Task: structure prediction
Amino acid sequence: MKIVLDIDRCTGHGRCYTLAPDLFDCDDRGYSVQLTTDVTEATEAQARLAVESCPENCLSLEGDN
Ligand code: SF4
Result:
């Protein structure tokens, strides 16, 4: 499974890198920076939380069955 970030929609609320620190970091302005697109068993819960929590709907999961 992959997590996809639409950076054009990101307004820097910071929820993704707070809730999913294994998947996201932030740049100097507080915008999201993706550390990896790969979602593993170990990071799946973080990924789902980040997707549900992004107020701008920037995040989505691909290959989620
Ligand atoms: S939660 Fe959404 S809007 Fe906020 S920094 Fe992350 S991707 Fe951007």
Q: What stands out?
A: The mean pLDDT is 97.
